[in-house]
Design goal:
The structure holds 3 protein chains of 3 kinds. Chain A contains 8 helices and 6 strands, in the order E-H-E-E-E-H-E-H-H-E-H-H-H-H. By secondary structure, chain A is an alpha/beta fold. Chain A is globular and about 50 Å long. By secondary structure, chain C is an alpha+beta fold. Classes of the chains: A alpha/beta, B alpha/beta, C alpha+beta.
C-alpha cells in the first residue's frame, strides 16, 4: 500500500465550496495528528463570503516538530481531498506535482457564473482526464450520492474523510478517526456519521 | 479542544486568535471588549464563551473606540484588559489611543490588531504597525501559534512595566491558522477594581509636550525591557552569506523557504518579535559582520525602513546591502507567502530553483483554463439580494440615475452582480451615510440624482448615527436603507445594541432603531425584503418624497441565522418544467442570469431552470420574478 | 447579428432620442422592459441581440411598404387618411354606451359587438378612468369595456397589455382598441419575422382611434395636480377649433377650461414625429365628427371591419349616417397636415431631408410629402 509515512512535511489540502464542511475535516485530522505527537499547521483560505465561494484547508503535518506556513507553497501538495471536482482541479493545478495523490467527490456544485451562462463547467470526462494526467493517482468517489442515500448531503465531508483514510496515504489509524467522530457528534448523529465514514472508506479501500 | 482547559503543559490544536485569548486568560485578564472585525473577531468571541467560567466581563462594544475605552477603564481601575480589532478598527480607536498613550495606563492593557494583508476580508490592507511608532508604543508580532499565546501573556507584563498600552499585531494567517499550542498555568480568578483618585489621567492642553517627552524618553527603557526575550532569536550559521531579518508570519515563510532551498548553511534567519522599538543590543550583536540583509515581512516595509534607520544611527562603520520591498525582491503590496520568500532567495542567491518542471507547469496552466470562476455571492435566501433587487427596480423606475452609497458588511457585495451592481461607494464603517449626507446637499449645483445610503444594523450603531443626525439637521435629501438582519452577520453574528443579548448571552435591553430614528423626526418605512414588490413600491414612494432624510428599514433575519435555528423553509420551491420554456422563453434566463440565487441552477439536460434542493433555503423570493410563473412556491 | 444588444438600440436610438411613443410594443413579453409612468424602464440587461423588443418597435425603423402590403395587399401611399372601404358618421344606440363614450360611443359599441358575436373572446383597450395614468386593460366582459370608454390624452402602453394577453392560453381571439402609433406597432408586429413567436395569429381585430398627439404622463400629471384632484376628473376633452381649450370635467366642480397653449408643452416629443392621424393600419378607425356633436367619424378599412360594422348595425348597437363631403375633405386636410408637420419636425431634428429616422425605409412616399412643402 502506498503511504506517505516518513515524508517531511506531509502536505494535505482539503478543498471544496463554502458550506461543505471542509473545516470539520481539517480539525478532525489535525486533532488526530496532534494526539500522535505530530506538529500541525492548518491554514484556511476563503473569500469574504460565508457560503458558496472556493475554500481550502491546508493541513501541514510535521514529524520533526516544525511549524510551517499555513498556506502550502506552489507545487508542494502531497494529497488533495476534494469535496467538489472543479475545486479539486483548481487546487491540483496550483499546488500539485506529478506525485500528488487526489481523492475527489464527483458531484459538481455549479458556480453562479455557469448557471448564468457566463462560464462553462468541464464535463466529467474532461475533469477526470485532467486530474488523472496531473496526479500520480486520483480516486473518484460519488460521495454526495452516498451522503444523500444516508439522508443528508452534509455527510459528504465525512464520506470523503473515510475515503482519505481508506487510501492509506496518511499515517493515521482508522480507529482513532472513528473515535474522534464519536467525540465530535451527539449520540444520535454518531451512527450515521460513522456509517458515512465506513462507506467512504470502503469506496476506496474495499 | 478549547482554550479553557486547566491542563498546564498539555498540547492543543488552537486557532491563532484562540491562542491569543488563552494568553489573555493566562495573564489573568478581567475585561475584554471589542467590535468584531475579520480577522480579529475570535479573540473576544472565544473569551466570551468562557466569561462565566472565569469571571470575566466580556462585551461586544458599539465600535472599536468604545471597546478600547471600556478596556482602558478596567486598566485604570487595576484590572488587566484586552481589546482586539482589525486594521480598519484601529483607525476608529486611534483617536482615544493617541491620547491614552500620553496619559498612560495602570494595569496591563493589550490592544490586539489583526491585519489583513491582501485585504482578504477588508477594504484595505493597511499596515497597523506604523501606529505603534507614531505613538511610541511597544509592538509585538507573534510568528507562531505558541508565540501568539505566550506573547499575549508577556504583553500584559510589558504594559504594566511601562504603564502604557502594548500592541500585539497579528495577521490573517496567524489569527485564522491553527497549530500546536502548549498550555500554561491559569491564575486565580478574583480581581478587585478600584480607581485611585489620587492619580490623574487627564490629557489637557499644556501637558501634551510633557507627556510626549516622558513617553519618548521611555523608548530606551522599552528596548531594554525586551532584553533577552526568546521572541527575538537567531538561527543559522555563524557567518551567513545573507541575513534574513523577519517578523510575524514572515518568519514562517522565510524559514520554510530556506529549508526548501537547502540554504541552512548559507543563510541565517533573525527573528524579531519586538518590532517597535527595535531591540538595540540584540540587533547590534547580530548585525555586526553582516553584509547583506533581506527583510521579509507582511505589507509595508516597516521593519525594513526602521532597520535602515537603525544601521545608520547605531552601526557606524558597517555597510549593508538591503534586499526587500524597496529593492523589489519582496512585493511591497498584497499578501506574501513562502513562495515570495523562495523567489527572493532564489533571485539573490542565484539558485535556479523551480517548484515544478516546465512541462508539468504548462499542463497545469492549460488545465486551469477549464476551471470555472467561483465569484462571491449572497447566500441562497439572503435578504440583501431581495433588498437590492427592489432598490434596482425602484431606481430604474424612478429614473434620474440614483446613487447608492454602500457600507461595510455582507451587503458590501452590492457592488457585484450578486447585488445587481447597485452600490457605487464603499469606504469606512458609516461612510455610506456620511457620503450620502454630502450628496444630498448638492442641489444648488444642479445635482438631481436620488441618493441612497446602505447600512447594516450593526454598522448603524457603529458609525452611521452621527452621519444620519448630520443629514437630518442639514436637511440632506437622502434615503438611509438599514438592512436589518438581526446581527453582525459577516463576522459571525455577534450581538450589537439592537439585539436583546450581550456577548455572554445575558439578556440586555435592545435599542430599537425605528424608535431612535422616529425620535429624530425621521419618517421610517419598514419593509420585508422577501416581498420584493411591496419593497420596491415602498422605495418608489420614499424616493418621490424628496427634500429631507428618510429611513427605510429592510428587515429580515439572515438566512444563515434562520438555518441555524433549523426553522422550516417559508416555501417549498420548485420549477414547473411544463411552464419553464428555458432558452425558448423571452426571459433570457432571467432567474439564473440576472437574479443569480445559488439555489437556482440551469439544468443542462432539460435546458430549463431548476432548484438545487441542497442549496435552496426556501425563501420563496424567486417565485415572484419568473415572468412565466414557472417557479412555484408551496407554503410549507 | 447586430453588434449592440436589442435593448441598447432601443435605449440609445429610441428612448433617449425621445422617439418612443410609449405604445408598449416592446414590453409585456419579457421581464427586462417595463412601462412605467410614461417611460419604458430597462430593468435589467438582456443579452439577446435579436429580441422581439427591437423587432416590434416601429420607431427603431418601420418598412411601411412591407407592413402595408402584408396588411392590405397594396403599397403604402403618401395620401391622407389611408385605405378606405367605407366612411360615415355613427353613434351608439344604447344611451348608456353613448353617455360613457368620448363622442358617439361607437368604439365601445363595436367592442361589445365583437364580443357578443364571438368574433373575439377578449378586447385589449385603454383604461382611462385615472385620467393621469391610463393603462392597457384586458377585458372579456361587456361591463369591463365601459371602464375603457373615454379618452385621457395621456399616452398609455396598451400594446403591453396585448403582449401579456396573447400569452394567456385561454385567450384565442383578440381585438385591440388603439391609437395610430399602437396600431402601427401591431401591424409591424404582425408582419415581422417574429410574429409567430408572439402568437400574432390571435390578433383578429384592430379598432383605431384618431389621434393628434398624446401628453406625457409625468409632467402633465404634475401640471394637472396643481389645478384639480386627478381622482375627481371624469372626462377630458379638446373641443373642435376654434375653441383652443383643454376641458377638464370634474365630479365636484364641473368644467374647467384650460387654454390649449398651457397643455401643449406636455405633448410627447415622439408625437410630433407621427405621420398618422386616422390610425391607418386598422380594420376600422373611429374619431370625432367635428361639428356634429355626439357623433363619431368611422373609416372602415378591411373586410373584417365591414363585417363588424354590419353586425353592429344588425344588432342595433350603432346607427350610421352619411359623412358630409365638406367634413371628409376637412378630415383629409387635417390628416395630410399632420404628416407634413411630422416630416418637417423629423428633418429639423436630424438636420437632413435624407435622414428620416424611423421612416428611413420608406423614402418614396415620404419624399412626395416633403416635395409638397
Amino acid at each position: 500500500m502506498m503511504s506517505l509515512l516518513g515524508k517531511e512535511p506531509i502536505n494535505l489540502i482539503i478543498t471544496g465550496v463554502g458550506g461543505q464542511g471542509n473545516i470539520l475535516i481539517s480539525r478532525l485530522l489535525g486533532q488526530a495528528f496532534i494526539e500522535d505527537g505530530y506538529a500541525i499547521t492548518i491554514g484556511e483560505t476563503y473569500g469574504a463570503t460565508q457560503r458558496g465561494g472556493s475554500v481550502a484547508s491546508h493541513v501541514r503535518i510535521s514529524s520533526e516538530g516544525m511549524v510551517y506556513s499555513p498556506v502550502t507553497p506552489r507545487g508542494k501538495a502531497d494529497v488533495i481531498l476534494g469535496l467538489e471536482p472543479s475545486e479539486s482541479l483548481r487546487i491540483l493545478t496550483a499546488f500539485g506535482h506529478p506525485e500528488t495523490f487526489v481523492a475527489t467527490n464527483t458531484r459538481p456544485i455549479y458556480p453562479l457564473e455557469v448557471a448564468a451562462g457566463e462560464a462553462e463547467y468541464p464535463t466529467r470526462g474532461t475533469l477526470s482526464d485532467l486530474m488523472t494526467g496531473l496526479s500520480r493517482k486520483t480516486w473518484y468517489i460519488d460521495a454526495s450520492a452516498i451522503a444523500l442515500a444516508l439522508g443528508n448531503a452534509l455527510l459528504t465531508n465525512i464520506v470523503m474523510t473515510g475515503a482519505l483514510i481508506g487510501t492509506g496515504l496518511l499515517p493515521l489509524k482508522r480507529a482513532k478517526i472513528e473515535r474522534l467522530i464519536r467525540e465530535s457528534f451527539s449520540d444520535e448523529r454518531q451512527v450515521v456519521n460513522l456509517h458515512a465514514f465506513d462507506l467512504g472508506y470502503d469506496a476506496v479501500a474495499g | 479542544m478549547g482554550i479553557d482547559m486547566d491542563k498546564p503543559g498539555s498540547t492543543q490544536l488552537l486557532m491563532g486568535n484562540e491562542a491569543i485569548a488563552r494568553g489573555a486568560l493566562e495573564a489573568g485578564i478581567g475585561v475584554a471588549a471589542a467590535y468584531p472585525g475579520t480577522p480579529s473577531s475570535e479573540v473576544i468571541g472565544t473569551l466570551a464563551e468562557v466569561a462565566r467560567k472565569y469571571g470575566l466581563y466580556v462585551e461586544w462594544s458599539i465600535n472599536e473606540k468604545v471597546a478600547l475605552e471600556v478596556a482602558a477603564a478596567a486598566s485604570l481601575s487595576g484590572v488587566r484588559a484586552i481589546t482586539a480589532m482589525k486594521q480598519n478598527g484601529l483607525n476608529v480607536a486611534f483617536d482615544f489611543l493617541a491620547n491614552v498613550a500620553l496619559t498612560g495606563t495602570n494595569k496591563g492593557l493589550v490592544l490586539m490588531v489583526g491585519d489583513d494583508p491582501g485585504g482578504l476580508s477588508s477594504t484595505n490592507e493597511q499596515d497597523s504597525r506604523h501606529i505603534a511608532r507614531i505613538l511610541d508604543l511597544p509592538l509585538l508580532e507573534p510568528a507562531t501559534f505558541q508565540e501568539a499565546k505566550d506573547m499575549t501573556k508577556w504583553a500584559f507584563q510589558l504594559s504594566e512595566e511601562i504603564s502604557n498600552v502594548c500592541i500585539l499585531r497579528s495577521v490573517t494567517r496567524i489569527s485564522h491558522g491553527r497549530g500546536k499550542v502548549i498550555l500554561g498555568d491559569l491564575p486565580s480568578m478574583e480581581k478587585w477594581a478600584y480607581f485611585d483618585t489620587s492619580k490623574s489621567y487627564a490629557g489637557i492642553a499644556g501637558l501634551a509636550t510633557r507627556y510626549h517627552k516622558s513617553i519618548h524618553e521611555n523608548q530606551g527603557s522599552i528596548a531594554d525591557l525586551y532584553g533577552s526575550t526568546p521572541f527575538n532569536s537567531y538561527s543559522g550559521p555563524e557567518r551567513p552569506d545573507l541575513l534574513v531579518v523577519t517578523c510575524g508570519s514572515g518568519w514562517l515563510y522565510a524559514t520554510e523557504a530556506v529549508k526548501t532551498l537547502s540554504l541552512e548553511q548559507r543563510v541565517g534567519v533573525l527573528k524579531i518579535g519586538t518590532t517597535w522599538p527595535l531591540p538595540t543590543q540584540f540587533l547590534q550583536q547580530h548585525l555586526a559582520g553582516i553584509d547583506r540583509i533581506l527583510v521579509v515581512e507582511e505589507v509595508d516595509p516597516f521593519l525594513e525602513t526602521n532597520l535602515k534607520e537603525f544601521v545608520v544611527d547605531r552601526m557606524a562603520g558597517h555597510s549593508y546591502r538591503f534586499f526587500g520591498k524597496a529593492s523589489g525582491h519582496i512585493p511591497p503590496y498584497g499578501e506574501i507567502n513562502v513562495d515570495s520568500a523562495i523567489d527572493a532567495l532564489n533571485n539573490i542567491m542565484s539558485i535556479g530553483y523551480r517548484p515544478r518542471e516546465e512541462a508539468y507547469e504548462q499542463k497545469c496552466r492549460e488545465a486551469a483554463q477549464h476551471v470555472p470562476p467561483r465569484g462571491l455571492q449572497f447566500c441562497a435566501g439572503c435578504p440583501h439580494r431581495a433588498t437590492y433587487w427592489a432598490i434596482k427596480d425602484a431606481l430604474r423606475m424612478a429614473g434620474g440615475n440614483g446613487v447608492v452609497a454602500g457600507d461595510i458588511g455582507c451587503y458590501t457585495m452590492g457592488i457585484q452582480a450578486t447585488g445587481f451592481s447597485q452600490v457605487k461607494t464603499v469606504h469606512a464603517m458609516g461612510s455610506g451615510m456620511g457620503l450620502a449626507s454630502g450628496l444630498g446637499k448638492l442641489e444648488q449645483f444642479h445635482f438631481e440624482q436620488p441618493v441612497l445610503a446602505m447600512c447594516g444594523d450593526s454598522t448603524f450603531f457603529h458609525a452611521a448615527i452621527p452621519a444620519l443626525l448630520n443629514a437630518v439637521h442639514n436637511e440632506a435629501d437622502v434615503v438611509l436603507v438599514i438592512v436589518d438582519n438581526g446581527g453582525t452577520a459577516m463576522t459571525g453574528f455577534q450581538p450589537h445594541p439592537g439585539v436583546d443579548r450581550d456577548a455572554g448571552g445575558e439578556i440586555r435591553p435592545e435599542i430599537n432603531i425605528e424608535k431612535l430614528c422616529e425620535s429624530l423626526g425621521i419618517a421610517v418605512t419598514v419593509v420585508d425584503p422577501y416581498d420584493i414588490e411591496a419593497t420596491r413600491n415602498a422605495f418608489l414612494e420614499v424616493l418621490e418624497n424628496r427634500g429631507k432624510a428618510r429611513v427605510v428599514m429592510s428587515r429580515r433575519e439572515c438566512a444563515l441565522i434562520r438555518a441555524g435555528k433549523r426553522l422550516d423553509p417559508i416555501a417549498r420551491v420548485r420549477v414547473d418544467g411544463s411552464k419553464c420554456y428555458g432558452d425558448n422563453c423571452g426571459c433570457n434566463r432571467y432567474c439564473t442570469r440576472i437574479f443569480r440565487c445559488p439555489g437556482l441552477i440551469w439544468d443542462r439536460e432539460t435546458l430549463t431552470a431548476k432548484i438545487d434542493e441542497a442549496v435552496c433555503s426556501g425563501c420563496g423570493v424567486c417565485v415572484s420574478i419568473c415572468p412565466q410563473s414557472a417557479i412555484v412556491g408551496e407554503t410549507a | 447579428m447586430n453588434e449592440c444588444k436589442a435593448w441598447e438600440e432601443l435605449r440609445d436610438g429610441v428612448i433617449e432620442e425621445n422617439l418612443c411613443t410609449y405604445c408598449g410594443a416592446c414590453t409585456g413579453m419579457c421581464p427586462y422592459l417595463v412601462p412605467y409612468k410614461g417611460r419604458i424602464i430597462i430593468r435589467d440587461q438582456c443579452s439577446l441581440d435579436n429580441g422581439r423588443c427591437r423587432a416590434f418597435c416601429p420607431r427603431v425603423g418601420v418598412d411601411l411598404t412591407h407592413v402595408h402590403n402584408s396588411m392590405f395587399g397594396s403599397s403604402y401611399e403618401s395620401g391622407d387618411i389611408g385605405v378606405v372601404k367605407d366612411v360615415f358618421i355613427s353613434r351608439a344606440a344604447d344611451p348608456k354606451i353613448l353617455s360613457a363614450g368620448q363622442y358617439g360611443g361607437v368604439v365601445t359599441a363595436l367592442g361589445v359587438t365583437a364580443l357578443e358575436e364571438g368574433m373575439v373572446d377578449s378586447v385589449v383597450a385603454t383604461d382611462s378612468q385615472d385620467k393621469c395614468a391610463p393603462f392597457g386593460a384586458i377585458t372579456s366582459r361587456r361591463a369591463d369595456l365601459f371602464g375603457c370608454a373615454g379618452s385621457s390624452y395621456v399616452a398609455a402602453a396598451t400594446v403591453d397589455a396585448f403582449n401579456r394577453a396573447v400569452r394567456e392560453e385561454h385567450r384565442h381571439n383578440l381585438a385591440v382598441v388603439c391609437t395610430p402609433c399602437q396600431s402601427l406597432a401591431l401591424a409591424n408586429m404582425t408582419s415581422s419575422d417574429l410574429a409567430e413567436k408572439n402568437n400574432m395569429g390571435k390578433l383578429k381585430l384592430v379598432i383605431g382611434l384618431f389621434c393628434t398627439w398624446a401628453l406625457s404622463y409625468e409632467s402633465f400629471g404634475l401640471f394637472l395636480m396643481e389645478k384639480v384632484d386627478p381622482h375627481d376628473v371624469v372626462k377630458v376633452d379638446i373641443p373642435p377649433p376654434p375653441a383652443e381649450t383643454f376641458d377638464v370635467y370634474t365630479r365636484t366642480a364641473g368644467r374647467l377650461s384650460l387654454p390649449l397653449s398651457d397643455v401643449r408643452p406636455f405633448i410627447r416629443e415622439a408625437c410630433t414625429y407621427c405621420i398618422d392621424m386616422t390610425a391607418e393600419f386598422t380594420d376600422v378607425s373611429v374619431g370625432a365628427a367635428e361639428g356634429i356633436d355626439g357623433w363619431n367619424t368611422v373609416i372602415v378599412r378591411s373586410e373584417r371591419g365591414l363585417e363588424l360594422i354590419d353586425k353592429a348595425v344588425k344588432r342595433g348597437h350603432i346607427k350610421i349616417e352619411t359623412l358630409p363631403e365638406k367634413n371628409l375633405n376637412h378630415l383629409k386636410d387635417a390628416s395630410r397636415m399632420k404628416k407634413k408637420r411630422a416630416l418637417k419636425n423629423i428633418c429639423r431634428k436630424t438636420g437632413s431631408r435624407n435622414d428620416l429616422l424611423y421612416l428611413r425605409n420608406c423614402p418614396t412616399a415620404m419624399q412626395i410629402l416633403l416635395e409638397e412643402e
